[in-house]
Amino acid sequence: MLSLNVSLDDRAYPIHIGGGLLDRVDLILGQLKSPRAAIVTNSTVAPLYLAALADPLRAAGVKLTEIVLPDGEQYKNWETLNLIFDALLANRCDRSTTIIALGGGVIGDLAGFAAASYQRGVPFIQVPTTLLSQVDSSVGGKTGINHPRGKNMIGAFWQPKLVLADTDTLKTLPERELSSGLAEVIKYGLIRDLKFLEWLEANMDKLRARDADALARAVERSCACKAEVVAADEFETAAEGGRALLNLGHTFGHAIETGLGYGVWLHGEAVAAGMVMAADLSRRLGWLAAADVARVKSLLARAGLPVQGAPLGAERYLELMGHDKKVVAGRLRLVLLKHIGEAVTWSDAPPGDILAAIEECCHV
Ligand code: NAD
Ligand code: GLY
After folding, report:
1. 247 Cα nearest atom in ligand 2
2. 309 and which of 66, 91, 121, 361 could share a cystine (Cβ 3.0–4.6 Å)?
3. Is 319 a catalytic residue?
């Protein structure tokens, strides 16, 4: 087991990464405020992993409520959030009840938002079971739901007490979901860690073959990157750079997810195409060479990800991007690449260049 720490003063917490961690009840028990917990999961993950987590907790004397939600990005909404509140109330869960998210980023974001708001806040634990959630969404405390007009538009910052990433769960992950997680892994290399990017280039085939050591290393390095960024700028308030850099490709990608309808493209797929757009725009600003853009596309393609955008029309992209949370005082603040391995936030990209980068990336 590898362990990291997210350094946030009195809200600091450990991330444990490794095989066979689901039933390491000792790691969870020490974090419970009382012997009372509610596991939030979905109809796909429950038959695979709910018993492995719940049985040892019950055997250790924890009174458990199990909440099984429908599966899918299209359920990351108010109606599904309310199902969690309904179950918590029906089972008389009190303020000392810990909510445990067992699943991917959708479950983590929903359960985390429920934890942030149920009885004005209850303790929360993340047990991520997708690559994307192990390398990104379970760490850092962003929780929330989608609105038909925009992705992740309603939510709260609510840090977990513990992240338990059992890499054995990745064995059952569909191929497309593994690739989706790899998009966020590649993101860390692109924004802040050239050596890691080179390692990814050398080990992409192993990662796609689910080599256990390679996956554990990718999860560890990604979590270390995210933990450092979050510790330095927890609430994404830095005037430049900071936590916003984690959104490379996301403003373009969110336009794809919202424009096509939630769940049509996976989050990592949309981010991958968005990172190509960001790289091409960085080239237009004179920061990257054409060979750098080709390098980004090549690695994403090797990870099984799309390098072409969804054909929404460049104007529609801009309209949807205008609704993104990354709009500051009416100006679109994008994350771009000064070099491969170094990202910046940038509000001065000419609209004509943004449109051209989108068109270039959507061109068949
Ligand atoms: P997801 O939660 O939809 O999970 C993907 C699919 O895999 C689902 O069908 C799920 O049921 C299934 N699944 C989960 N674990 C499995 C396993 N071990 N074996 C087999 N199937 C399994 O998607 P995701 O990619 O994990 O997360 C995407 C979500 O995360 C998006 O909503 C995105 O906005 C959010 N996100 C949040 C943050 C954050 O900081 N909070 C960061 C990045 C992404
Ligand atoms: N996924 C972006 C963030 O956590 O800030």
Report:
1. 2
2. 361
3. no
pLDDT digits (tens, 9 = 90+) for 95-150: 999 999 999 999 999 999 999 999 999 999 999 999 999 999 999 999 999 999 88
Q: What is the pLDDT of residues 2-37, one digit of tens each?
A: 999 999 999 999 999 999 999 899 999 999 999 999
Ligand 2 pocket, 280 CB below 6 A? Answer: no
Question: Catalytic annotation on 339?
Answer: no
Confirm whether pTM is higher than 0.85. Answer: yes
Q: Which tens digits make up the pLDDT trace of 207-221?
A: 999 999 999 999 999
> Mind listing the domains of the chain with CATH numbers?
2-172 (3.40.50.1970), 175-362 (1.20.1090.10)
Report residue 364 as tokens.
Answer: 């068949």
Nearest alpha-carbon partner for 281 in 363, 340, 354: 354
Cα-based distances in Å from 296 to 10, 28, 219, 293: 39, 39, 20, 5
Both structure tokens of 132: 């994307």
Whether 258 is in the pocket of ligand 1, judged by its Cβ within 6 Å, is: no
Q: Which residues, at least 6 apart from 260, have a Cβ–Cβ distance to it below 8 Å?
A: 310, 312
More confident residue, 328 or 155: 155
Distance 91 CA to ligand 2 centre (A): 32
Q: Pick from 92, 141, 113: which is nearest to 40 by CA?
A: 113
Residue 324 has pLDDT above 80, yes or no: no
Active site residue 226: yes
Supply the Cα-derived Rg of the chain in whole angstroms.
20
- Are the C-beta atoms of residues 99 and 158 closer than 8 Å to each other? no
Q: For residue 228, indicate whether it is catalytic.
A: no
Separation between Cα atoms, residue 218 and residue 321, nearest integer Å: 30
Residue type at 172 in one-letter notation: T
